[in-house]
Backbone:
């Protein structure tokens, strides 16, 4: 009797909403002050624009690979054909981190969002992490989000896809309304000065400091590849690449426009100094809470969809590692009736719930670690393509960009490179991966 398989029920709209929806979370609201503090309005916008353009060769390479190999393992499946088994495991395990790390980020962020509406979310302090107080209501909200997303994913990919469609389209509708109002109401003088740093190289440094974090906030377009095995039987494989390219372009445009809109409605230095969120900037500029509520509604939709999209991607990678016995094969189990990777879902839910206990302290450090993890996964996929087609210029470009992302994070002299906390987080994940690899090898040996 054959093992249960993943259900095939996703179409073109779902693949776009998984790609775009897995990228655009709530960073544009909760860490806008960090973006503007790094680059200033024009520096931040250029940083995201440059980052998006540089990611397009990687996106196009993924589109080519997923058309040929529609496998939930994505990087695992691409590398296993040309590289040793451990390379396949390592690329998949690190890429799991790129997705899985987003889920506790959102579990912490939901408390941050709710506190902007309900002051009681800041009551009943429990403990502190890195100077950030964790309160009971915020913790409960994070655990509640985890339960909702895990429940949606357990019930089936069709429900996950519909959930992704509704939340993504809802976000875009709200986005159009408040951005149009913002540009109509604001003033170009609020944008000055254009860059956060002055001097000869100030503009360049401003752009680079933002471009460094773009990989984290743009990670997710490859979620299309992780869901590719669940496409409808009549789905045209060429649509995978189109969905990925469109998702990257739309995601980059979203970030550039929202940065400029925020700086347009309120002097950006005031926002940075006051550590204001996007909705607070609009509320001050308009003198009304109505637009702030609209922005927060968009943020909640965005939070749910990005958490769901990354949850789907991470669990499919865990499933693929398990069914190849690169980790304990239990992770490769598929629910016989629902067609979902239920063990992987339960495992990621536990990880997300654990991360929720860290609260806001995880937000900025996770950005840095996620950027490196994505760079490693993208590099592995592009190298796999180069190994098969040595004259593929897009794949070579993807390799260069991916390596640049990695080097910017690991070379100490580069502004924005890893600090001790990021190295500890990455080292812990690698150590956990080594343990899982050894358990997978033992299981493979017993099976053979």
Residues:
């Amino acid at each position: 009797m054959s093992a249960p398989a993943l259900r095939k029920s996703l179409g073109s709209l779902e693949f776009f909403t998984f790609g775009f929806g897995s990228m655009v979370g709530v960073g544009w609201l909760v860490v806008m002050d960090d973006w503007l503090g790094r680059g200033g309005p024009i520096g931040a916008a250029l940083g995201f624009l440059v980052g998006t353009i540089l990611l397009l060769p990687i996106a196009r390479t993924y589109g080519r690979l997923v058309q040929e190999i529609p496998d939930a393992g994505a990087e695992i499946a691409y590398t296993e054909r040309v590289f040793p088994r451990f390379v396949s495991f390592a690329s998949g395990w690190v890429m799991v981190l790129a997705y899985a790390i987003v889920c506790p980020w959102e579990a912490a962020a939901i408390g941050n969002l709710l506190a902007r509406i309900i002051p009681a979310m800041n009551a009943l302090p429990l403990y502190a992490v890195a100077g950030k107080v964790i309160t009971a209501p915020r913790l409960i909200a994070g655990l509640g989000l985890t339960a909702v997303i895990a429940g949606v994913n357990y019930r089936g990919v069709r429900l996950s896809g519909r959930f992704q469609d509704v939340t993504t389209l809802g976000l875009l509708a709200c986005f159009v309304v408040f951005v149009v109002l913002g540009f109509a109401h604001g003033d170009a003088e609020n944008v000055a000065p254009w860059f956060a740093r002055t001097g000869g190289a100030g503009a360049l440094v401003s752009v680079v400091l933002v471009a460094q974090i773009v990989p984290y906030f743009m990670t997710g377009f490859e979620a299309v590849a992780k869901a590719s095995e669940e496409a409808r039987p009549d789905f045209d494989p060429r649509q995978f690449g189109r969905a990925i390219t469109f998702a990257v372009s739309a995601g980059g445009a979203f970030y550039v426009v929202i940065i400029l809109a925020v700086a347009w409605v309120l002097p950006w230095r005031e926002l940075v100094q006051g550590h204001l969120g996007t909705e607070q900037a609009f509320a001050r500029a308009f003198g009304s809470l109505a637009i702030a509520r609209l922005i927060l509604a968009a943020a909640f939709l965005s939070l749910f969809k990005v958490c769901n999209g990354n949850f789907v991607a991470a669990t499919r990678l865990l499933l693929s590692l398990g069914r190849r016995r690169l980790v304990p094969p239990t992770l490769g189990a598929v629910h016989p009736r629902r067609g979902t990777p239920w063990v992987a879902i339960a495992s990621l839910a536990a990880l997300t719930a654990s991360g929720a206990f860290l609260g806001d302290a995880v937000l900025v450090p996770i950005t840095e670690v996620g950027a490196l993890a994505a760079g490693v996964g993208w590099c592995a996929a592009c190298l796999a393509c180069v190994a098969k087609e040595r004259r593929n210029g897009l794949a070579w470009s993807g390799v260069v960009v991916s390596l640049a992302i990695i080097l910017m994070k690991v070379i100490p002299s580069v502004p924005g490179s890893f600090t001790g906390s990021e190295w500890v987080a990455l080292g812990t994940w690698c150590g956990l991966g080594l343990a899982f690899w050894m358990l997978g090898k033992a299981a493979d040996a017993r099976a053979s």
